[in-house]
Amino acid sequence: MLIGVPREIKNHEYRVGLTPAGVRELSKGGHQVLIETDAGTEIGLSNEDYRQAGAELVDEVTDLFKRAELIIKVKEPLTQERALLRSDQTLFTYLHLAPDAEQTRELVGSGATCIAYETVTDTAGGLPLLAPMSEVAGRMAIQAAAHALEKTQGGMGVLIGGVPGVSPANVAVIGGGVVGINAARMAMGLGANVTILDKSIPRLKALDEQFGPQLKTLYTTSESIEQAALSADIVIGAVLLPGAKAPKLISREMLKQMKNGSVLVDVSIDQGGCFENSRPTTHDEPIYIDEGVIHYCVANMPGAVARTSTFALTNATLPFVLALANKGVNNALKEDPHLLAGLNVYRRQMTYQAVAEAHGYDYVSPETVLRD
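^ that's the sequence the OP posted. Answer follows.
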């Protein structure tokens, strides 16, 4: 199979869809890999590294899209990339279609087969291609929040861990999944007072057993969210409904009652955000202030630690890339129900129910479209 890896063009996005090690594995299997020139140079993966692994370097992204059968990316394709997609191509990347009507419309219109990292599943019911970036984003959320809490950034001027004789910051983490656990672990490591909220009693019990009295747990209700948010110096939004829009958990009215100079970090922003006032920001301008509260809503947080993120992500995606290349896209999808769960768009049909409902498309099950 002819596989293309373009250079990412989203704001401050330096990750790359395949490492040289991944290229080598595909080349050993008889596949040809096209890498856009300088795709990995910003994170220390040189053109020569890719060449020695067996890749062909391509200077023009239009040439890469024209030739490749399978496109491997990290972030969703931007408008100019979507215009290059063809009906005989497969796109494998993060898509986050539920809050993005324009991208959804253009991907459906392209006729391409679109498989989303974030909806691929595993035998334990997890999301194995989302998990590594969720780990990074959860840990980064505390790092970003601690910086935003500084007075020079507009925050209230609180040191997250305090000092002897001075109380540390109060951190509320909404969501006890991969993002939330990693955020809580980082915050506790810095000495903060941490509360985590979740709707799953088994999850709360597991967290209590894992961390003991160092971590406070609360069952998620409107009241508990309000109580936690109003007493918090930092709130981390870490909720996920796979493939669907995130629920809005902090309203503008609640925001008005929060501490002036407190910080909200919305890690759910890729799925539309879980705070009413959230809007996507970039690494160039990561924060804004609304109702006196600092909002950090960068949609590609792991891009800031792109080398770590690239290796973590490609460790997870490579087995699926190899399956698609070795078996062919349709056979790989038919043989692996977990990969099949990642199929969002197929031959102009919407094959992921939550996205279909979000944008008013007719939903067709992936099993059905592959039989036709």
